[in-house]
Amino acid sequence: MEPPSSTGSGPPDPARVDTSWWRRFRTLRDEPPQVEGWLFGAASLLGLLGIWWLVTLGAPVDRWVAPYTLPSPGETFSSFPSLWERGLSLSALTSLLRVCGGFVIAAGIGVPLGLLSGSYPRVGAFFKPFGIFGRNVPIAALIALTLVWFGLEELQKVMFIFLAAVSFVLFDSTIATRAVPDRFLETAYTLGAKHNWTKGLRLTAGIAAVYALLASAGWSWLKDEVTLAVAVGSGGFWLRAVIGFLVGFGLWFPLLSHQVLRKVVLPMAMPDVVNSLRLLFGLAFGYIMLAEVINAKRGLGALIIASERQGPREHIYLCLIIIAVLAWGIDRFILMVQRQAFPYLKHGQN
Q: N or C: which end of the chain has fewer CB within 10 A?
């Protein structure tokens, strides 16, 4: 028997068609290999860099875009030493601490409230107006509000990040909790799940102790007290520790004392919650310039504002690139932790 002709009327070879790169490219939701994804991402960055280089090519008087508006890539990156001399490392660390401080507070309050709101619809109805207001209020309006409430110092900048992020954390945590199918809860009840007050007390006490430490030591850092040892000797330190303990206990005890919530809802909702926190952290990092617009002696936002007013303009673009790189690095770190903590689930975008 003769082999079939390549020009015959028979169907095409499925193996050849399925492995066609162009066909896979046009296939909806066909995930590319990791290396191919990296190549497309690198191509995007190189394309943007090429456009930047092209519009700033040539002598300053002959450029499509004036150097005062957009310096060339070479001029921008060559100004890095002078930016470093302006205290770049300290400013980057300061901004990172401010964002992490505000976001940790937002997660510490928004996540348990979101889990409770998603588990108990009446609790969700109670917090719904706060979530709607927080997600729709203009972020810039929070600057004036935090200045009135918290003054001009470090506390105002951390609380600005907290207020800007907490409503989004609350909303996403509620949605992730509500996405847990009812059949798993019904199965748990069928198997005899109930309240376990004793274990709930033990677990909650450990988490509440962390809240107490963060409330007392964190406040000392925000108020710039001399040393932690001096702060420990004051009555205010221990009062804040007690308040933090009570807040943490009140937020987590209803969740950890109920077996259905502790063994079913939390394990199934937390992967989506962590993925949401990973994405929201990048959003919070983007607010750093607004947080540092008033009375900020250090920080990447302060460097951007000073460079806009006094120059050099190249430092504006360098600071923006550094903010993006820092946010991306932390995003990758959280994604790595997420994959280690929930290896059995497929996560969001890489």
A: N
In single-letter form, the type of residue at position 345 comes to L
Contact criterion met (CB below 8 Å) for 98 and 298: no
Backbone φ/ψ region at 28: left (φ over 0), alpha (ψ -120 to 50), beta: beta
Helix (H) or strand (E) holding 83: helix 80-85
Tracing tokens 């199934």 back to the chain, one arrives at 268
User: What does each C-alpha distance from 102 to 98, 132, 188 come to in angstroms?
Assistant: 6, 20, 36
Type of residue found at 93: L
- 324 is a domain residue: yes
| Beta partners for residue 258, in sequence order | 195
With contact defined as beta carbons under 8 Å apart, do 134 and 151 qualify? no
> What pLDDT digit, counting tens, does each position of 157-190 carry?
888 999 989 999 999 999 999 998 888 888 888 8
Q: What is the pTM of this model?
A: 0.81
CATH number, domain containing residue 116? 1.10.3720.10
The gap from C-alpha 107 to its chain's centroid, in whole angstroms, comes to 10
Q: What is the pLDDT of residues 84-139, one digit of tens each?
A: 888 888 888 888 888 888 999 999 999 999 999 999 999 999 998 888 888 888 88
